[in-house]
Every structure is written in structure tokens, then in C-alpha cells.
Amino acid sequence: MKSSTKDTESILTREETRTGLGPETLKRAILNHLFYNQGKFPEIATRNDYYMAMSFAVRDRLLQRWVASVKKYLNADQKIVSYLSAEYLLGPHLANNLINLGIYENMEKASNSLGMNLDWLIAKEQEPGLGNGGLGRLAACYMDSLATLEIPAIGYGIRYQFGIFEQDIKDGWQIEDTDNWLRRGNPWEIAKRELGYDVKLGGYVQHYTDINGKFKANWIPGMIVKGIAYDTPILGYRVNTCNTLRLWKSEAPKSFDFQTFNQGLYSGAVSDKTVCENISKVLYPNDEQREGKILRLQQQYFFVSCSLQDMIAIHLSQGGKIERFYDKFVVQLNDTHPAIGVAEMMRLLVDVYEVEWDLAWDITKKSFAYTNHTLLPEALETWDQDLFQSVLPRHLEIIQEINRRFLDEVTIRTYGDQDLISSLSIISDGPWKKIRMANLACAGSFAINGVAALHSELLKKTVLKDWYQLWPEKFSNKTNGVTPRRWMVLSNPKLSSLISSKIGEGWIKNLDELTGLEQYADDPSFQQEWMVVKHEMKKDLAKRILQRTKIKVDPSSIFDVHVKRIHEYKRQHLNILHVIALYNRIKQNPDAEVVPRTFIFAGKAAPGYHLAKLMIKLITSVADVVNQDPIVKDRIKVVFYPNYNVTNAQRIYPAADVSEQISTAGKEASGTGNMKLSMNGALTIGTLDGANVEIRDCVGAENFFLFGLTEEEVQQKKSEGYNPFDYYMANPELKLAIDQINSGYFSHMNGSVFKDLINSLLYHDQYLVLADFESYVAEQERVAEAYKDKQRWAKMSILNAARMGKFSSDRSIKDYCDDIWKVGPSPVELVDFHQKTQ
Ligand code: F55
């Protein structure tokens, strides 16, 4: 029975008094949770108890919106975006939810009245580091924008028990520690114990002909794991839309459906608890370098299978027909990590739902779209066919069949062009056959995109050239973006208030409105206010640097920031070579005028990436020498800030004057840190790589410090036979710096420490560090010169922020919605959630 309007009103009023947003209600809610959830009272409650109580109070306020959103998606004839990603680098939830709900100030009042400081409680949160870097963080920004734009969406992924490792620095070396983020519980997730799916792994396939003479396959698994859904509500900014991030945890099944698996040897299939739980245990800490391990393939298949089973269940439960799956869901593959979904969809359609092959392939191709995030050959995922077969025997058969039919089509279209056929083949030929996941993703998707204009162009010219030749209509570019809620409002509240005081708050949802700041760029008093905020943020960071590293830095010096994963192509060593050159200039001429600078590095190295770890050791070793040398007189300082994660990034970006975006042209697909830093008023020194190109176009060449070879010049140099040793011999500053590293100047006279790094630079240098050194150093001189003119710098900084509208993830998501997903906003109204659906 439908309740009357009057009842609804009273229930809503009751709900409003319970989950209202005023300071008094919030305070009462915190105390209630403290008491009823934790069995604590103020006299004995710890800060963590308060953090938990406050988080539950906030979650209560998300839930009305979440339930209303889920209800709407289930009832409405509305397509849902399904984002499949092996990584989500979310960062802490509490402060973000306070901002999106619009109750930051009220919660501050509530916590003050409880004798608590809101910042302390926010700092208690263990961030969910379920990603490595850019790709995982992009997925998190996109979840924020999807909700803010009121787009129905579900993010699917893995609930890793251990996220990205915590980094510590001991004797200058990176040390890894496990990230036990769930240790104290996670108030943001809701376990749906009843929502689980069985996932088969290993075993073999039986073939038989059924009574209708149909050829059938029966996959007898070696083991079965169960995926349990853990849901995290993702609220948009000042809207009722609250989407779901559904992460799967692997467990041992207690029992399983004997009907499905009753053909034979199933006794061993109900596996060991530990083996099953291992699948969602730990995030692989590699970025841009694949690890061809069985467990990794199991992880990928596990979460993709759960997610597709879930989508199909939702679709069918609404009376949808399996043939029209793509009317309900559009599935975006975040790189090739979930590309096995193409084969799994075929298996579900053909083996489970008994759809004819051709129709199944048509449904699959209408459902999937694929985003590529890298051109680096070592990152392209392939699986040894034998290994693949041992984990997914039925999928190997399905891929072979997809490939057979697909290559038939290619043969007809290309008149049997053998080169094209072998490059497009999903399975490589040769004695060791490999399954190429990018080819599977391309073949099974209706859309393929890169993540910045240059990257998308290079994709069409290089790794996906042959795909582009045959299917140009599938290709597009979707330049990355970042959410201004987390990366400005939350991490830089002072700058945000200053901006809003001039142009109102509209920019938070419509970042193009930042152009309103341009009219103040020449205004000396605004410039002054702008630089005061920057100085405040630098002072805050300086305090943290002192606490964390014992290094004292001067907030009036240039804060030159190089923060991102450590990788040869990102060229942290180019930066440190410049630092050494500056240091030598001071040593040679102690009275030379040097604009004081603090070089701040942060980032994790993949634990197995020897040269990246050596780069960290080199940075810390140079820091040890430069920071102590009395001749330097504190004019340059070098800091390695440990454990770069979302929380630390939020502290570093607002304090940056200079943003180092110095990858070898053509290697960084997009970059997103470049956007966050520019939005916070940092000036970029960078190459024409990834989204730098577009950032420079937007902020103006005069507000961007450009250096280095272009992508074409890099290619040309390589084809001419690049010899790094020539550059070493030709540039005395470069030679001296390298000789010093080699001689042990920075390593207590033990020159052997850095030999692998030096050899790689002098004799290979695949990322053209030495070729770009001279132009980098020259541009850094222009940076220093510009900083001396405070007004000019302030103007450039303001114009950088003012022109960053394009790089909001809201813009990216709108582009995906319009061009690929064909999904529009579906605003959610708060309804009486007690009311039963008829
Ligand atoms: C993680 C695991 C594997 Cl196996 C391979 C790559 C990664 C990964 O983290 N990649 C990654 O972060 N790529 C980055 O994606 C960003 C978002 O599109 C880009 O901005 C950045 O250029 C790219 O390197």
C-alpha cells in the first residue's frame, strides 16, 4: 500500500530530525554513535572513537541519498555507466563527504562543542590506497564527477585487504611496509553479505552435444571462489545523487550450487579458505610494468566476473532481456586490466544464457568501451597462453573462437594482408603464444580512447595503428581531468575562499568560471592576497617537512615540486642533475646570485624496479650533501617527502610554486598531477608531453616554461643513433655532475652505489635525459629570473589557475557521456525511503 502524502511528510520530518545537517543534530548523532556503536562515552573515547562516530554520522546522511539514487536507477528506464577498474585511489572520505554534503562548517561547530578539533579527526582516517597512481586516481576523480553530474553509475573493483605499500626512507633507501588500512575498521563501506557470486578458476572443459544436437561446453573448475560485495556510497557535490562503488572481496564459498557444477570432479573445487582469500588480498604495486603472475590474472578475472554477473542480475531483475543488456549498461574498461570482461561476457551469454554466438558477439561489442593509458611497450598486457589456460581454460577456447572469426573478417577486409592479420591477432603467433589483452579490448569494444590529445594521436600512429586503419570510427580522445572538489576546495580552502570572494562559488561545479579571475590578474592587491595564501600554504608544508624529514626549509624560497611515481621516463634524475649543477655553481662561485629554492620530491618506486629505487637513493644522497654544506648557506635545499599518497598530495599541491612535468616527450600518456598543480597556482616547467601540451595551450605559452625535444625530435634522434656519451662529453656541467655521482661524492666516496644508474644514462639513456639536460637547465634559469619579479610571478600564477577550466573531470565525464556512453543526467529527489516499491 502506498502511504499517504501526510505520512510521507511526517516520515521525512522524522528522518530530517534524525539525520539533519545542523550543528546540534550532528553533535547528538556523534554522541549516539559513540555510545551505541562503540559503547563509549566522552570521558573514555579516543580520537579514533570520535573519528568513527563522526564518520558513521556522516554516512547516515549519505544513506538517504544513496537509497534514493539506487531506487531510481532500479526503477527508471535509465542506462547506467559501469566503470570497471582494478584500482581506485580514493583518498580519505570524511572531509570530502563533509564538503559535498555542505556541512563542513556545521561539523566544525559540532566537534568544537565536543571539545574536539575537526582537523585532528580528519587526520585519523587511514586512506584507502587501492591504486598505484594516475590511473587509479583518475577512476576516483571520475566517480566524483559522475555523481556530481547526476549520472547513474556504478564503479566496480577489488576490495584489496592491503593497498599500495607505505613507503619509509631508511639510510636514504625506500623501505616498503604493508598498508593495513582496514585494521581499525572502515566506516564508509557497507558489506552486502547476501550479495555474492561464485567465480570458477582453473580445471578443464568438457564438450558434449545436448539432446537438441547443440554443441555445448561444460567448464569443470579446479576451484571456486565467492565474491562478496562491499559498497561505498559516492556522493556528488551538493546534489542528491549518491552512486555506488562496489568492491569485491574474495572468500571461500561455504556451499555452492551443485546444479551448476555437478558434472564430476567437484570435490576439490571448494577450496581452501586461504587460497580463496588470497585473491583480493593485495594490490600489485607496479605501475607501467606488468607482472605476468597467475594471481594477477585471477584478480582481474575475479572482479570482472563478479561485476558482469551483477550487472546481468540487475538487468534481468528489472525485466530486461539479456539481448538488450547494452540498453541498461555501458561498460568502460579502465585500461586492459578488466579486458578479460570481453571473453567473460561471451562465456556468460553463450554458455550460461545460451545466446547464439553471432548475437552474443554483437551484444558484447555494443556494451564495452576501452580506455588506453599508456604507450610504453613494457606495460602492454599479454599472458602466456599456457598460464592463461591453467586459470581460464574455457576463456582460452572462447578467445580462440573470437580470434578465428575476427581474423576471417580482417582477411576479407584487407584482402589477406598477412602483416595486418598478425598484428591484429588476439593471440600472437610463434612458439610461445600470448594472449594480447589490448587486442581483445579493441576487438570487443565499440569505442577506444586515449587520455590526452597527443596520446590519442600517437595511439593511432603507433601501438593501435592497424586498428585505426580498419576502424577509424571507434577512435576518439578524452583528455583527463581532475575533480576541483578534492583538489581545490578540500585541499586548498584558503585559495578557494579567495577565489569565491571574487567570482562566487559557481566555479566549483563549472570550472570554466575561473576565467572570471583573469580580470584581477593585474590587480596588485589581488596579487598580494593570492601570494599571501600561497605563502601560508608553504609555511604549513614547511612545518610538515620539518616534522617528517628534520629538514628545515624556507617558505620564501621557490617550492619546486616533483611528485609522482618514480620512473625513468618521468626523469626525476634529470631534475637531480640540475640540482647538482646548481650546487656546483655555488661551490665554484659562492657569492653568485642564486634565487633560493627548495626542491621537493615525493613518489613511490615499484619494489622490484631497481633503477627507480636507485633514483630515490640518489635524491636523498644529494640532499644529504647539499643541505649540510655551509657554502650553500641554505640557498638550495633538497627534500624527499616520504610516502606520497592522496593525503600528502593534498598538502603538497597548494604549496607548490613550480610544477615539474619533465617526462620524455611521447612517454607520459596524460598526467593529472600537472593539472592539480596548475589549478593551485603552480607554474609548470615541462616538455611537450601528454596533457602538458593542452595545459600550455590554455594557460598561454608566456605562462609556461617549455623545454626539451618534441616527440618527433625524440624519434628522429633515436633513428639517427642517439649517443648519450656525446652529450656527456660536450657539456662540462653535465660531465661534472655525472663524474661526481660516479666518484662517490654523494655516497661517502663509494662510487659503486650508483653505477647501474650511471651506466644506464651514459650508454643507453632510452629516455634522453642527457639530450634534454642543457635545455632544461636553461629554462630553469628563466624560472628563477621570473620568480624575482613578484608581480609578474603572481600574475602568471593567477592566470594558470584562471585558465584551467578544461581540466575539470566534470568536462572529461561530459565528453564520455556525450560521445561514448550516450547517457545523460538523472537527478535524484529525496523520497520517503521507507515506502515500498509497488
Ligand atoms: C597500473 C598497473 C599496471 Cl599493470 C599498469 C599501469 C598502471 C598504472 O598505474 N598506470 C597509470 O597510472 N597510468 C597513468 O594513467 C594516468 C591516467 O590516465 C595518466 O595520466 C598517466 O599519464 C599514465 O601514466
TrEMBL record:
Gene Ontology biological-process annotations: glycogen catabolic process
Keyword list, A-Z: Carbohydrate metabolism, Glycogen metabolism, Glycosyltransferase, Pyridoxal phosphate, Transferase
CC annotations in GO: cytoplasm
SUPFAM superfamilies named in the record: UDP-Glycosyltransferase/glycogen phosphorylase
Required cofactor names: pyridoxal 5'-phosphate
Reactions the enzyme catalyzes: [(1->4)-alpha-D-glucosyl](n) + phosphate = [(1->4)-alpha-D-glucosyl](n-1) + alpha-D-glucose 1-phosphate
EC number: 2.4.1.1
PTM-bearing positions, type N6-(pyridoxal phosphate)lysine: K676
Gene Ontology terms, MF aspect: glycogen phosphorylase activity; pyridoxal phosphate binding
Enzyme superclass (EC): transferase
Function comment: Allosteric enzyme that catalyzes the rate-limiting step in glycogen catabolism, the phosphorolytic cleavage of glycogen to produce glucose-1-phosphate, and plays a central role in maintaining cellular and organismal glucose homeostasis. Phosphorylase is an important allosteric enzyme in carbohydrate metabolism. Enzymes from different sources differ in their regulatory mechanisms and in their natural substrates. However, all known phosphorylases share catalytic and structural properties.
Protein name: Alpha-1,4 glucan phosphorylase
Provenance organism: Mongoliitalea lutea
Taxonomic lineage: Bacteria, Pseudomonadati, Bacteroidota, Cytophagia, Cytophagales
